[in-house]
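Appendix C: a fully annotated inverse folding record. The material below is reproduced so that readers can follow the format used throughout the book. The structure is listed first as tokens, followed by the designed sequence.
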């Protein structure tokens, strides 16, 4: 029987942020006394359509991740694996374990461990679209003008803003499809050069992908500024939830 699986990858150390956080990997930095990766995992833990969670973590923090999962009752965790040299290697390691334990037609929602502010509706839209079309790429339309530049000095091309979107996560696929895509890429490009996410992987292999609308607060924690934004977003969400409850009463 097919299931809906979340693959959460957090195998990196976040060099851009480590300079400001004394080398603590960003996925373990705490926002309101809770590690960022736990904020992320709880979104999938609480979603009624998610059956299992697989986590790919930095090898040095494998034991710590096991402790966190137990402490915060992430009971849907089906396995924790050690990450690889790149983000795609880390995803591949988790997918291999998921493939051994689940049917090929299961859906896999691939998500950054440091993207802790997606909504339940976005997760549901991913599942709905992937069931219909075979995959789903979470996107938001760009509000800024996008410049294409090869030298970083002058723009070579300026696409129409109405045609530009930012790919985010989750990115959802049938388990067999995403594993096969990784196998093909590892044969021709084993280091995953220029493969920045699963959408890029599929498009490089000329496999059609389908977009779904994401939420604006779905940021990936990369810089110290992102931490302040995330803190504000979480507080705003909590205030809105409290306001809704008070309004009902």
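Designed amino acids, in order:
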């Amino acid at each position: 029987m097919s299931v809906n699986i979340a693959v959460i990858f957090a195998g990196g150390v976040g060099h851009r942020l480590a300079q400001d956080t004394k080398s603590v990997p960003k996925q373990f930095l705490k926002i309101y006394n809770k590690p960022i990766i736990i904020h992320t995992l709880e979104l999938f833990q609480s979603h009624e359509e998610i059956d299992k969670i697989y986590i790919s973590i930095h090898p040095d923090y494998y034991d710590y991740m096991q402790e966190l999962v137990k402490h915060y009752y992430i009971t849907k965790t089906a396995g924790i694996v050690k990450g690889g040299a790149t983000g795609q290697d880390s995803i591949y390691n988790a997918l291999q374990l998921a493939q051994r334990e689940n049917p090929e037609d299961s859906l896999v929602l691939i998500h950054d461990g440091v993207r802790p502010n997606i909504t339940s509706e976005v997760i549901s839209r991913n599942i709905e679209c992937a069931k219909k079309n075979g995959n789903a790429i979470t996107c938001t339309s760009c509000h800024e003008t996008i410049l294409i530049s090869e030298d970083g000095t002058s723009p070579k091309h300026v696409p129409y803003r109405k045609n530009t979107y930012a790919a985010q996560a989750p990115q959802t696929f049938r388990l067999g499809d995403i594993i096969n895509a990784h196998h093909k890429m590892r044969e021709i490009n084993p280091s995953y050069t220029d493969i920045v996410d699963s959408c890029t992987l599929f498009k490089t292999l000329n496999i059609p992908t389908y977009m779904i609308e994401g939420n604006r607060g779905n940021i990936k924690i990369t810089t110290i500024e992102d931490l302040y934004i995330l803190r504000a977003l979480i507080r705003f969400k909590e205030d809105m939830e409290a306001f809704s409850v008070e309004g009902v009463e």
